[in-house]
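Exercise: predict the structure of this protein bound to manganese (II) ion.
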Amino acid sequence: MKLLCVGDIHLGRQPSRIPPAVDDAVGIAALGPAAAWRRSIDYALEQPVDAVLLAGDVVEQEDDFFEAYRDLRAGVERLTAAGIRVLGVAGNHDVQVLPRLAKALPAFELLGAGGQWETRELQGREGGRARIAGWSFPQARVSESPLESGFPEPVDCPTLGLLHCDRDQARSPHAPVRSSALEAAPVEAWLLGHIHRPDALAAPRPMGYLGSLTGMDPGEPGRHGPWQLELAANGALAIQQVPLAPLYWDTLEIPVDGLDATDIHHRVTEALERLHAEIEQWPQRPLAVGCRLRFTGRSDQRPALERVLRADDPRATVQTLGDRLYFVHDWRLEAQPAVDLEALATGNDPAALLARKLLLLQGADSEARRALLDAAREPLAEVTRAPHYRALGREAPDDTALAATLEAAALHALDRLLLQREGDQ
Ligand SMILES: [Mn+2]
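Solution:
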């Protein structure tokens, strides 16, 4: 028996950080959840699988009914016409809308409505049986573990658990469950929704998050897609990810040691070409690839590098390699200046003062380091609270973000001080 297991789809959500040039070339819709869902259906029909399982948050929000209805119906109709069943559970995002969709679309089988565990048996087209046990969110906030009560008793065929939940977050309002409770349940596999980063699911007893069907922003990097689960007649189970997401996010590290600033763009192109060569080897390939560039290493050309990167910003151009678009959504000059900070720090001029603060920031936790972060915390938090930015809903920076911001600012200032020094001589 072959099953295609689909994690959070979020129909109705638009991918973010897509440059206008990429939108113009392929259309943002070709990169979003609906496109990923269509690709999954094509794959399910090609195989063909016996059933498609949806682990909740199929729809982004309640008012996406009509858009989601169109996409879900088109998919369910194609699948059921080919004799492929479609089963799903509701997550915290689609607690109302998924049951409504199920009513409007009887071919779609919603499991565990109202927060009551429910099972359905599947028959493989080549023989074999399996049972799906599912539970749906009865309301958007659920503070008790769905595993506390009512989990179905084992029977004489393999059971696969389908659940949208928050694992090992005891105080979560999104159906908190403990790993130990998942492990103790009488199932052959747990197919979970909610967390968008896929787990490394593996036989013999896969238990974990399927991940979002496609990465919708740079915070969802790596390969995404549905998972194909196969149950052999002897009970052996195999599972593998089918990374067919149309959009792929990655971070490229580009060392700039010994690099002349004018060669930086060449170095960026090389890094993108290397990534392209790797992606060409994949059996399923994305339409577009968004990259964050980290310029690392040590350089005596930091100011020049920054000037060149700002004058001819890598974010401004979209590269087409093969039939794929590559774009840069962010870059960071993280390279350290080619100076000995320890030696510099022994002086008593402003550069020495900065070097001492940098060493503090880059060093281990200490009282002095905490004092430095504390001094920056409130002024930076004030920025996120400013009326202009409040609508972005950004939280005040945590210590890691604070330290990174201070370090970047200190390096920038140090570059300028060192340039002045050279000018003085
Ligand atoms: Mn969720």
